[in-house]
Amino acid sequence: MMDKYTKPNFYKCAVITIDTQNDFSLPGAIAEIQGTNEVLPQMKVILEASRRKQIPIIHVIRLYKEDGSNVDMCRREMVESGAEIVRPCSTGADLVGSIKPTHAKNLNCEELLKGTIQLIANSEWAIYKPRWGAFYQTNLEKFLREKEIDTLIFIGCNFPNCPRTSIYQASERDFKVVMVEDAISGIYRKGIDEVMNIGVNIYTTDQLILNFSNENLE
Q1: What is the mean pLDDT, run by run of 10 residues, along the chain of 218 residues?
Q2: What is the CA radius of gyration of the chain?
Q3: Nearest-CA neighbor of 205 among 218, 187, 190?
Q4: Which candidate, 13, 64, 56, 39, places its Cα nearest to that of 183?
Q5: Pairwise CA distance, residues 211 & 144, whole Å
Q6: Region class of 158: left (phi > 0), else alpha (psi between -120 and 50), else beta
Q7: Distance (Å, rounded) from C-alpha 21 to C-alpha 24?
Q8: 3 state DSSP class of 11
């Protein structure tokens, strides 16, 4: 239930994209997550509106080193055996073209792996996360607090894993949370009900864009 503590504040919000990289998103990719390609149009609409409104955007990504040393245990053996999934500086690790800002800077994988939050365009950044959640062993919370952001809008790849974990981590840190149900792959009804129970606000893309307009953020 939305109340004064959970109601989104679109004047102090940021959009968080999760793992929307070529290797996870494109049809036929080595680690394609079914349904991700289908949500890209909605993601693009949200991101273009955010850019017009100068709403900060943070692209949270995975990078798997060739030796598997930074890979989740459930995928480590596969990467150690030679599977090239989101390998640093590869095309597969890059953001999907349709969601990238115009004239985006190339990802600096070496710096990202060190924990740097890289500015890739005006009010738009990339950050590497070493596990499922966007806040685990990253500087994301510090970055958001410094910018006085209190509301996070989640879109991207594969709700059951990284988006869901990141949403719970955001809630634990008392951020107000919006999940855009038609702009995240892997959504299912029980999962929606469960995150609503911790105060997450569920929007469609159209509803979110309407709220951006109503807030007159420009």
Answers
A1: 87 98 97 98 98 97 97 96 96 98 96 98 98 98 98 98 98 98 98 97 97 72
A2: 16
A3: 187
A4: 39
A5: 21
A6: left
A7: 6
A8: coil
